[in-house]
Amino acid sequence: MTLLQVDQLGKRFGGLQAVDGVSFSLRQGTIKAVIGPNGAGKTTLFNLIAGMLAPTAGEIRFQGKAIQGMRPFRIAGLGIARTFQNIKMFAGMTALENVMVGRHVRSKAGFLASMFRTSGCRSEERAIRDKSMELLDFVGIADCAETLATNLAFGQQRAVELARALALEPTLLLLDEPAAGLNIYETAEIGRLIAKIRDLGITVLLVEHDMSLVMDISDEIVVLSFGQKIAEDVPTVIQQNPEVIKVYLGE
Amino acid sequence: MRKNFVFLPVLIIVVLIQLLTAWTGTIFYLTQMTMSAYYSLLIVGLCVLMGYAGQISLGHAGFFAIGGYISAALTTRNLTAHVEHPVVRLLDLLGCLQAGQDIYGDPLLVVTPWAACLLAIGAALAVSFVLGIPVLKLKGHYLAMATLGFGIIVYRLVLASEYFGEADGISGVPGFSLLPGLFVSGDISWRVTNYYIAWGVLLIAMLLLRHLIDSRVGRALRAIHGAQDAADAMGVDTARFKLQTFMVSAVLSALAGILLTHYNGGIGPSEASVMKSVRYVAIVAVGGMAHLWGALAMGMILNFLSLRGCFGSYDDAVFGVILIVIMLFAPNGILSLRLGLLSPLSLKGRQFFGFLRKKQAAKEA
After folding, report:
1. Which residues of A touch B215 (CB under 8 A)?
2. What's the pLDDT tens digit per position in B252-310?
3. What Å distances lie between residue B72 and B95, B164, B172, B173, CA to CA?
4. Residue pair B216/A132 in contact by the 8 Å Cβ criterion
5. Nearest beta carbon to residue B237 from set A73, A88, A107
6. Which domains does chain B have, with CATH numbers?
7. Touching check for A117 and chain B: CB below 8 Å?
8. What ipTM does the predicted assembly reach?
9. Reported pTM
10. Would you say B207 and B8 are in contact if contact means Cβ atoms under 8 Å apart?
11. How far apart are CA B232 and CA A78, in angstroms?
């Protein structure tokens, strides 16, 4: 079943066509990677899907519903979670609190209920805390729960960000260069984690530079160059694609 | 929550201060303590807006004035001549009017303090809603300038309007009977009661704000402050949460204005002045931005000293200096200075003094 359908998507910044008529679809329960050299438009494509940017052309459909141009918080509300290339921890909050923010759209206590700490609000708060601890455990850093997130090691912050995105109980998880800045052991670890997430039934779309990771875990790969899609196939075929090799290695 | 254990020591200090003034015959201090508590009510609200939601406001004296002036005008302006007006008749039907006699023995018809209070809070809510929607889209110093503009408008309006008493302000505001036995009034016989009323209101507000900060909403606010686009990506409707926080702080400011006006028996345009707004921001900064108890303590101490006249005619200048010094040397507030470093009892202090002794010994050797 198609979860996400990107159709003739375009984004122009003044004279620069950053994304140019890109189309692809994402089947539920699979991992798809978007690769391409620097400046190919990967991050722009990502930000279009996550709602950080509005496209100048084309359509994005999630579960059959057009979502292009929607505000990011609404897209998150539909069940699309994301991580950031340059990790964005909530400063001044512990790892656990960071993950608890991820439960936002799955809980509902408002200003008045919170101020007067109603019983519904208290039990919801307990549920948020339990679920968040569970997720920190899932990504393997439960023992860092009470540490300020910004004081954690880089790899641990990545894990917190992943747990925070999972706390949203997403149908679709967008990962923006999950291996950036990680060493080979940490990269392998994050690869195992992403496969584990897919096994939970969560569909994953990732942008990545690290070829070993992409080839290992992706079910399908989309290759971008200068804003256009030049190939889309399974990893073994992409590896043999002459155009892809040309783009990456030159002629 | 363990954080709530702070309430007990604070309550004990509040009672001890009252007993101390009673024993030493300095009960007159309670008047300034009461007034400081009301100003602190505004300050803790501003602290949540600035420190937790990360939105600055240089217009909160405006909300204080909206509360104080509306409540003062409604409870003093004689409606006898307008008895047939549909609005006045509606108020009468709702039981919001009280009749009496003015000082010349003529009939006096005014709005009751409770109704005036609710109308003033309603006005603050409405104004903060209408102002907040466009203004909170701004960031940093743009937001500061826009709220500054709002503060100036309120100040000039009360100064120019005959209804609000122009430069004289409004005097002769009656007391406000919150509940039987709880009478907000500057009358000396009610002084101790009012001291406890002010602290009661302030501590209830603190409890509600602490709850707010330790909740889903508080986490969302801190997330907005920490990394707005990540908060957005987690599904936090940042515009809505900022607006609601702005409204909560506006209501607390208006409530402070209402109660202090009834306590003082009047209000003047200086309460709406921009210097007041700057002072509130300075106090929140000294208290440590995201530190409710710090803001409360500084609100009490600095307002008390100011009201006692300790800063003389340099009053506003003192707050200007405080703002500069804090921004330069302790942008995270005075509590972040780790004064414990100076104490020989603390671990850090021991390390520090040990280091000094070693240095001294090395020099002598």
Report:
1. 109, 114-115, 117, 121, 125
2. 999 999 999 999 999 999 999 999 999 999 999 988 888 899 899 999 999 999 999 88
3. 18, 9, 9, 6
4. no
5. A73
6. 2-332 (1.10.3470)
7. yes
8. 0.90
9. 0.88
10. no
11. 13
